[in-house]
Amino acid sequence: MRSLRLLDVHREADHIAASCALDDLRFHVTVWYEDVDLTALARRFGDEAVERIAVHVALFQLNAACSLRPDVIELGAMRST
């Protein structure tokens, strides 16, 4: 069974980075925000809200790896966000 695993979602003030794995393949993506301060958004709306947004952005960006037709997608620790 081929499993696409979301390994990490990381955010800084100006970007969201994510990585996933499918078998021996590793994929990384970074979305940069020139006019958005994610740290300020977290202070205003809460860390959990911005973390949820970051996970959704990461999943949308990593959707391209689904073209390799995994049998399942594992969210790991991100499942609860």
Q: Helices, strands, pairings?
A:
Elements: E1 3-11, E2 15-22, E3 25-32, H1 38-45, H2 47-62, E4 72-74
Parallel strand pairs: 1-4
Antiparallel strand pairs: 1-2, 2-3
Helix pairs in contact: 1-2
Q: Any overview of this molecule?
A:
This protein has helices spanning 38-45, 47-62, and strands at residues 3-11, 15-22, 25-32, 72-74. It has 81 residues and is of the alpha+beta class. The longest helix is centred in the last third of the chain and has 16 residues, at 47-62. The radius of gyration is 13 Å and the shape is elongated. The chain has a four-stranded mixed sheet, with helices on one face. Helix 1 crosses helix 2. A hairpin with a 2-residue loop joins strand 2 (15-22) and strand 3.
List keywords for this structure.
81 residues; elongated; alpha+beta; 4-stranded mixed sheet; single chain
Q: How does the major sheet shape up?
A: 4 strands, mixed
Shape: elongated
How helical, in percent, are the residues? 25-40%
Total count of helical runs of at least 4 residues? 2
Widest sheet: strand ordering: 3-2-1-4
Q: Give me the secondary-structure category.
A: alpha+beta
Average pLDDT level: 92
Poorly predicted segments: none
Q: What percent of residues are in strands? A: 25-35%
Radius of gyration: 13 Å
Distance between the termini: 25 Å
**Number of E-type strands:** 4
